[in-house]
Each structure stands twice: as structure tokens, then as C-alpha cells.
């Protein structure tokens, strides 16, 4: 089992996934659902299984218009940077001197091997948590389990109690688990700021002869 598309294919044969697929298809027909249908599996598409070096776990997609595009914490170019991502940028600035970019588009991370995985992959417009408990968690837990099986060491960043609740899925001693409070404005000052996760991740990767992540997101030139 090497590819996320194989996992999707395998899971799609299971009863829970068939019910999930039916629910999601109906939701897209009846409501405004994010992200766009073609981007539901964007995180898995842009960070192939064999490339995964770091996993950052989110909960569900942003529910505002134009925000979500299938990667945890990332927003489309031109969209206001959400508060949690602003705090991630502040921590990067403190740790590594990264300047604060003018956008929240994290594709650069994905293409370097940072899997930005939400536990729930769809959401109804302006209705946070609306698609929790319909089966996505079973699917994304399977993704985490498969990444856990990788021979190559992987860094798992677990921010907040929800992400930490997935720790039991990570049993391979080769991997590094980093835990901190969530970067949201409600909890960032209780230990996310100063966690040094980005430095620790790169030190771990380098110690295992793996190319570290260039965390700097560049400014986008808008017309």
C-alpha cells in the first residue's frame, strides 16, 4: 500500500464510506459545501504518500466563502489570513525569522512533504462542525495509520486536544510526535507560542538525513 489513491479506492468499498459518499453528494446538491468538490482530497493529491515528511492535523475545513481548498490551516490566495494561521506565522517568525507573508496559501509546504490533513474533509457554509461524525474521521484515521506504517521517519504535529486525541494511532517509534496547544487566539498563549515545533521538526529531519522544510511562505503579487 503506497498511494493515497489506493487507500481511497480500498475505503470506498466499505459500508461506512458508501454512506459517507451518499451523504456528501446529497449535501453538495442541496447546500453550499466547502471546499469545492474537486478539492476534497487536495491534501492527499499534493502531498503523495511517499513524500510525507511532516503531518499537521486540523479538525475541519474553514466554513467561510472562498476560504477552504482542501488543506488544513491553508486558505486560497486573496483570502484574509485566519487567526490561527496568523499565530502560526508569528511562531515561525519567532523561531526562524520568517517574515509574515501577505497570504495564507500553504501549497509550498504541501509540495515539500507537509501533509495538511483535516480530520473532516467537508463542511456546510457558515456551519462549523456540520459534517463531523458522518464518517470522515474513520477515513482520515486510516490515512494517519498508513502514514504511521512508513519506514521513513515522519514528524506529527498535534496542536490542541482534538489533534492530540489521534496520538494513539501513531505507534511507530521511528516517528516524532510534537504536541502543543492549538494556535487559535483562545489558546496560543498557553504554550503554542514558544513550542519551537518548526525548529524541532527540521532538526529531526536533518538528523535522519531527510531534507528539512523551508517554512517561509512567500508574498503573492496581486494585480
Identify the notable features of this structure and list them briefly.
single chain; 35% helix; globular; 11% strand; alpha/beta; 223 residues
Walk me through what this model shows.
The protein has 223 residues and is an alpha/beta fold. It has eight helices and six strands. The strands form two sheets. A four-stranded parallel beta sheet has the order 3-2-5-6. The longest helix is centred in the N-terminal third of the chain and has 16 residues, at 15-30. The model has no long low-confidence stretch (mean pLDDT 96).
**Basic shape:** globular
Assembly state: single chain
Structural class: alpha/beta
The biggest sheet amounts to:
4 strands, parallel
Number of helical segments with 4 or more residues? 8
**Which percent band covers the strand fraction?**
5-15%
Number of strands: 6
Order of helices and strands: HHEHEHHEEHEHEH
Please tell me how large the radius of gyration is: 17 Å
